[in-house]
Amino acid sequence: MDELVWPTEWKDLATELISGQRRTGRVLVTFIFSLTIASYGLYIVDANRVKADPLTGGMELCIAFRDSFVQQVDLVFNLFFIGHFVLRLIASSDKLWYWFDIFTLVDLFTIPPAFVGLYFRRVWIGLRFTRILRLLTLADVLQYLNILKTGNTIRLCQLVTMFASLVLTAAGFIHLVENSGDPPEFKNANAITYFECTYMMIVTITTVGFGDLTAQTTSGRVFMILFLLSGLAVFANSVPEIADIVGSRNKYGGVYRKTTGKSHLVLCGHITFSTVNNFLSDFLHEDREDVDTQIVILHKSVPDLELEGTLKRHGTQVFYFQASKHLLFLKL
User: What percent of the chain has pLDDT over 70?
Assistant: First the structure.
């Protein structure tokens, strides 16, 4: 009986740790995300050193482990990634499908080369750029931290991170094939930096096509064709939706959050420039003692230019919301 109970307990614990259901899980998810972005930053450092390395001219750096601070830090990061990999494996309900998950593939592409390179005393840049795909989980992390709360902001974050992940991953791949050269001899390598590859991907996906940077290898050109066909579809679908979300944002929407130690006063009814200005002139008069009360103005319409100017002059003490009074009272 114990043999059946223990695996279930492990699975429940692993699920809690990687799903963010509790504070411990949210901390772990945020921690792994931060390590992944930091690991991607280390990849950029190494990628920019490849072009200047006179010994290899490819995607490897001949640096002893004890002399490479970047490799040492990245190895520590990969130890944490192994632990997270195991937790996800235990928590998965379908062990077969788990091996085809995008983040499982990222771990398989990046963790083994770190230890193989340690044995051979080399740093292989390779597929480490795939770490940036973890950026796709940014919306989940920001929800755990209570930064994203509305559907529009969550969707906007998903669209932006999807576009950024696509461009940065494609830039890493073109950096790999261009600096490696065409198989099987790999003799026509094109020395190009990761920043230049990113620039080339952005120019390509936006169909600007300046032509100042182009792929020189056959592998790179084939990939550019595939990227243009797929990336353009993503770009064409994402940009209009991003524009709609940004355009639909209400400047005077949101929720008023009471500041600890300060009282607030709700002002509603006949809201015009003259009524608000007269009220503020009297309520915030210099002959009064220091007034430490925040004023919340509630009205169904957007303020006109005169009233907007008044709001800006009292920006730290006066807050304007375009909503019904019933909605505001519920939130207060």
Answer: 88
HSE-CB for 137 with a 13 A CA cutoff? 21
Residue with tokens 């944002």: 249
CATH number for the domain formed by residue range(s) 148-249 = 1.10.287.70
Q: Retrieve residue 262's tokens.
A: 């300060």
From CA 93, how far away is CA 210, in angstroms rounded?
48
Residues 243-259 pLDDT 10s = 887 777 777 776 777 77
Of 277, 310, 317, 271, nearest to 293 (Cα)? 317
- In one-letter notation, the amino acid at residue 316 is T
For the chain, the structural domain boundaries read 1-139, 148-249, 263-331
Please name the amino acid found at residue 24: T
pLDDT tens profile 83-96: 999 989 888 888 88
Do the Cβ atoms of 123 and 117 come closer than 8 Å?
A: yes
User: Which own/partner contact pairs does 19-22 have at CB distance under 8 Å and 24+ positions apart?
Assistant: 19/91, 20/140, 20/144
Closest by Cα among 321, 319, 328 to 294 = 319
Q: Using alpha carbons only, what angle is made at residue 140 by residues 136 and 143, rounded to the nearest 5 degrees?
A: 145
